[in-house]
Amino acid sequence: MDPAVAAIAEWMPAQRWYGGKGHAPLVRRIGAWELPSSESGVRVRSLLVMDDATRPPVLYQVPVVERPAAVPEASAHLIGILEDGTHLYDGPHDAAFTDALLDLIVHEGRAVAAGATAAGHYSGAPDAARPTPHAPATVLGGEQSNTSIIFRPEGAAPVICKVFRQLHHGENPDVTLATALAASGSPHVPPSVGDVIGEWDDIGRADGRARGHLAFAQEFLPGVEDAWRVALLAAAGGQDFTAEAHALGAAVAEVHRSLGAAFPRETASDALIAAIDAAWQRRLTIAVAEVPQLEAHRAEIEAYYARARAGAWPQLQRIHGDLHLGQVILSPGRGWLLLDFEGEPMRPMSERRRPDLPVRDVAGMLRSFDYVAGATELVHPERATEARAWAASARQAFIDGYVEASGTDLGKYRDLLAAFELDKAVYEAIYETRNRPDWAPIPLRAIEQLLAAGPLQASAPSGG
Ligand SMILES: Nc1ncnc2c1ncn2[C@@H]1O[C@H](COP(=O)(O)OP(=O)(O)O)[C@@H](O)[C@H]1O
Ligand SMILES: O=P(O)(O)O[C@H]1O[C@H](CO)[C@@H](O[C@H]2O[C@H](CO)[C@@H](O)[C@H](O)[C@H]2O)[C@H](O)[C@H]1O
Fold first, then answer.
1. Distance, CA 446 to ligand 2 centroid (Å)?
2. Which of 248, 232, 269 is nearest to 373 (CA)?
3. What value does the mean pLDDT of the chain take?
4. Gap between the Cα atoms of 203 and 399, Å rounded
5. Is 273's pLDDT higher than 90?
6. Nearest CA, atom 20, ligand 1
7. How far is 102 from 120, CA to CA, in rounded Å?
8. What is the pLDDT confidence band of residue 453, given thresholds at 50, 70 and 90?
9. Nearest residue to 195 (alpha-carbon basis) of 170, 183, 212
10. Domain segments of the chain: what residues?
11. Which of 218, 340, 342 best tests ligand 1's pocket when mutated (most atoms within 8 Å of CB)?
């Protein structure tokens, strides 16, 4: 057995990206490769470890740096000390790994080993300066499902490289959608820099191998906070956010148009409608099991789904899939940019790669404005009325911006939008109960309000 694996198993549960919260990991090594290191005696390795503690088992990517002795200033990133005295450090926090990763992408390197391979691919614009090796690197803090490293190379634009933690066979929509949008000239995504594709043993596949994205690098826009923080501050200060929300609605509509042109569309056949309905029902079943307060609303929620199923359906196309304020940034010079097209982390990857309904994204952002009110209220209950009014204006402005820029008659898809808003709130009820139980009242209150508003008022667009 690889001696690093036992140390990783002990360390994993405390990592934000570990999805099996509440379980002790049960890991086995699927593969590992080594990247070149410029420091003698130092090994840069990436391990692919399967966690069998959850159903289905989850495959994690764990880059590590093995050093012969302790690096005292890196003690916070020590994974463990192996029997032979080797010190195992968390790769994204160690320059030996970050140098090797950037080099792999920019110079299209390839690492081959038993059980797994990794190949870098550069996709920067021909006229863009290629990032130099040995760029200072830092890990982005905060609550992320993946690990993002920011590089500040000399003479080239900063780069953010996201190391995917949970791996799946097949394309990662974050890479393919953002890269296609950037290639189409869309101003609403950061230009792509490159990616890493891996291949690993998988006895569940016909040819015994799985292939998928391991990392994705894009230009990093420094000094721009994600809109969740900006919106929270605006709501707390009673600042109007309608102009920004309107422009965001227009940007989302333009991204939908570009994605519709770049990827195949599909007509909403009975089979597709049934599949989406089944996904709503499946999620509701999980939610009721994990959040017992929802049992009382189950029949009413199902009635919304039934109405939506019977109503009008537009064509399906690729969408963002997990759109909320934490996934968008407003650059003073470039306007709104959308990030993280990976889709909802709790949804099977095979579903996230399929054409979907643009109203799912609209609903996601509407929920996010409501979250601003909910989060404000949790801390300052006395500001509830103002916060809710702030959210209501932002929601309406977002819808208006979307309708004007897309020409879509959202009024026609009112039932569908209401169903997706409820479905998102149901998802959030599960997400919060698992990750931030104090926040569970935000989606639970939203579900009650959406149901109380009645089918025709829920998310009612003002025009279009
Ligand atoms: N290209 C970028 N420029 C500036 N900030 C970015 C960029 N990409 C990501 N970020 C910041 O990183 C945060 C997390 O990125 P995201 O892609 O959503 O990662 P995750 O999949 O781990 O949630 C975003 O909310 C944003 O603040
Ligand atoms: O950013 P991720 O892809 O990891 O998304 C997950 O985590 C989000 C929280 O960080 C969660 O979003 C929910 O909380 C946000 C505020 O923190 C709010 O803006 C969103 O509207 C709300 O859904 C997201 O659902 C989850 O998939």
1. 15
2. 232
3. 93
4. 47
5. yes
6. 144
7. 9
8. confident
9. 212
10. 3-219, 225-459
11. 340
Q: Is the domain 225-459 a CATH 2.50.20.10 member?
A: no
Whole-angstrom distance, CA of residue 121 vs CA of residue 131: 13
What is the predicted pLDDT for the residue at 463? 41
pLDDT tens for residues 232-245? 999 999 999 999 99
| Residue 20 scores a pLDDT above 90 | no
CA 124 – ligand 1 centroid, Å: 18
Condensed to tens digits (0 to 9), the pLDDT of residues 292-336 reads 999 999 999 999 999 999 999 999 999 999 999 999 999 999 999
Mean pLDDT computed over 265-277: 96
Phi/psi of residue 17, each to 5°? -80, -5
Mutate which of 164, 224, 232, 339 for ligand 1? The one with the most ligand atoms within 8 Å of its CB, which is 339
> Is the CB of 371 within 6 Å of ligand 2?
yes
- Say which residue the tokens 């148009």 belong to: 257
Q: Of residues 20 and 208, which shows the higher confidence score? A: 208
Query: Would you state the pLDDT for residue 55?
Result: 87
Q: 409 exposed, middle or buried (CB, 10 Å; 0-12, 13-18, 19+)? A: middle
Report the residue count for the chain: 464
Q: Copy the structure tokens of residue 9.
A: 């198993």
ipTM score here? 0.92
Instruction: State the Cα–Cα distance between residues 48 and 58, nearest whole angstrom.
Output: 10
Q: Would you report the helix, strand and coil content of the chain in percent, each value rounded to 5?
A: 45, 20, 35
192-201 and 166-167 strand pairing: unpaired
CA dist 17 and 14 (Å) reads 9
Between the CA of 117 and the centroid of ligand 2 the distance, in Å, is 32
Gyration radius of the chain's alpha carbons: 23
The one-letter amino acid code at 47 reads L
pLDDT tens figures, 367-421 = 999 999 999 999 999 999 999 999 999 999 999 999 999 999 999 999 999 999 9
pLDDT score recorded for residue 457: 46
Q: How far is the CA of 345 from the centre of ligand 2 (A)?
A: 10
In this structure, what is the dihedral angle of CA atoms 97, 65, 11, 431, given to the nearest 10 degrees? 10
Torsion angle, alpha carbons of 89, 167, 221, 387, to 10: -110
Residue 359: φ, ψ to 5°: -65, -20
Q: Which H or E run includes 390?
A: helix 384-406
Ligand 1 centre distance from Cα of residue 339 (Å): 6
